[in-house]
Amino acid sequence: xxxxxxxxxxxxxxxRHRLGILTIxxxxxxxxxxxxxxxxxxxxxxxxxxxxxxxxxxxxxxEKGYDGRRPKTWVSITRAGREALAEEIAALRALVDRHGD
Amino acid sequence: xxxxxxxxxxxxxxxRHRLGILTIxxxxxxxxxxxxxxxxxxxxxxxxxxxxxxxxxxxxxxEKGYDGRRPKTWVSITRAGREALAEEIAALRALVDRHGD
Lengths: 101, 101
Hints:
Chains A, B: This is MarR family transcriptional regulator. Chains A, B: It holds the Pfam family HTH_34. The structure is a homodimer. Chain A is α+β, with helices and mostly antiparallel strands. Chain A has five helices and three strands.
């Protein structure tokens, strides 16, 4: 196995929408589902599908509750999620540094 | 549509093995198939599949010939491939700059 930077990427984290979800959730304590949907320009079904992959991998937590009488879902990144994202960002940085300019 | 950096990524280019193929081919005039296979730690079938996606998108060219009596396939990046890779690298740089450290 060679050390090309793309060999260090995980498909779970690298997929562009999942990478978007992880970077956004890493910036706050928790993020509301509708905000993620709008920011990433995804349908609810598509966003749910990617969130499920990340929850199953232990990288996100889901919390369901109410904002007044409206049902809401909040998403938060786990410690394993932060670690996986940090690895991805390090690999991307290596790629950008190697290829850039 | 928001301006989150992952919204600017193309699935054709962003997929990690295809990103590896494009970055490696961008560094040389042409690359031999077996070298790509080894560098990216892929099976021949898997590499072929990703190369086909990139050829169909107009981002790579294939050239078949002989090295002595051994049949060889060389892969080269097209001008459109260089442009698509430059866009991807710019989007990744925005993501790394936004998220890093």
